[in-house]
């Protein structure tokens, strides 16, 4: 029985399909499953893979590495037309320029177009990748609505199919996450550390008093002729918006400076 996968992040993610046409290496299939799961997707389809048992081959299982649920949910179709049946906007990913076919765009523009399509319609978007050796045929591309390129080194633009799929999944994720106001930075999912809070004015002033005392003890600041050193130091610390932890750290440094300076003076007196 075919399983299904849902990221749970946004319904839009569940309407994006990644299609590998005639994959010949089981490892690439496993790596593709891992690639799309890391980006929040789960709909991976294969068209006429070289091996009928590709999903259970050791290399596929190994490179899926934590994404075996996505691998188990993979659907296999005999033709690309069948894999694209529910899709309303398909992007044919290719490295080669094509004289004939649908309009071309880069992968970032494709992600933006796909995101807009998903938000404005009830349709589905697909990214289609070809075989490891020769890519997509002209007939494959004719089934899609856009040709899509990954800007790469023109002298060596060949990407491994799983790597290309990872880039496509990343661009699509970024576009969808931004549109859905999903967080783009990792969360600690824990209680905030009070030490990271901004230090209060009182704490900063106490630091400055301690700091000036330490500078006097080590002979860097002459209290009878301070010139503009003290106010410059205050401006410097003020510009850096110190946290509580940083104030505590600097006061610990002040204490060490004073202790060392007084210890040195005692040795000299002996």
Automatic annotation (TrEMBL):
Gene3D superfamilies membership: 1.10.8.590, 3.40.1280.10
Keyword Transferase: yes
A GO CC term assigned to this protein in UniProt: cytosol
InterPro entries the record matches: Alpha/beta_knot_MTases, RNA_MeTrfase_TrmJ/LasT, SpoU_MeTrfase, tRNA_m1G_MTases_N
One Gene Ontology molecular-function label: RNA methyltransferase activity
Transferase is among the record's keywords: yes
Domain tRNA/rRNA methyltransferase SpoU type: 16-169
Record GO biological process: tRNA nucleoside ribose methylation
CDD domains on file: SpoU-like_TrmJ
Highest taxon above the source species: Bacteria
Keywords: Methyltransferase, S-adenosyl-L-methionine, Transferase
Family: Belongs to the class IV-like SAM-binding methyltransferase superfamily. RNA methyltransferase TrmH family.
The protein's name: RNA methyltransferase
The species this protein was found in: Allopusillimonas soli
């Amino acid at each position: 029985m075919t399983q299904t996968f849902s990221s749970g992040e946004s319904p839009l993610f569940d309407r994006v399909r990644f299609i590998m046409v005639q994959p010949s290496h089981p490892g690439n299939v496993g790596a593709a499953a891992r690639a799309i799961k890391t980006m929040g997707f789960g709909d991976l389809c294969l068209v006429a893979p070289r091996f009928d048992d590709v999903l259970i081959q050791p290399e596929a299982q190994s490179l899926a590495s934590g994404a075996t649920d996505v691998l188990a949910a993979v659907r296999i179709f005999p033709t690309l037309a069948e894999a694209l049946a529910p899709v309303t906007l398909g992007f044919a990913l290719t490295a080669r320029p094509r004289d004939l076919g649908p309009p071309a765009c880069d992968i970032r523009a494709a992600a933006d177009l796909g995101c807009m399509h998903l938000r404005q319609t009830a349709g589905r978007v697909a990214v289609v990748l070809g075989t490891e050796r020769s890519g997509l045929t002209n007939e494959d591309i004719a089934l899609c609505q856009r040709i899509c390129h990954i800007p790469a080194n023109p002298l060596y633009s060949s990407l491994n199919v799983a790597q290309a799929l990872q880039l496509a999944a990343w661009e699509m994720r970024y576009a969808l996450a931004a549109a859905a106001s999903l967080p783009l930075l990792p969360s600690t999912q824990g209680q905030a550390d009070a030490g990271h809070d901004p230090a209060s004015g009182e704490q900063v002033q106490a630091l400055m008093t301690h700091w000036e005392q330490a500078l006097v003890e080590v002979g860097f600041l002459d209290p009878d002729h301070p010139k503009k050193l003290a106010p410059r130091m205050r401006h410097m610390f003020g510009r850096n918006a110190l946290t509580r932890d940083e104030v505590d750290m600097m006061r610990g440094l002040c204490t060490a400076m004073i202790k060392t300076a007084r210890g040195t003076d005692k040795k000299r007196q002996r």
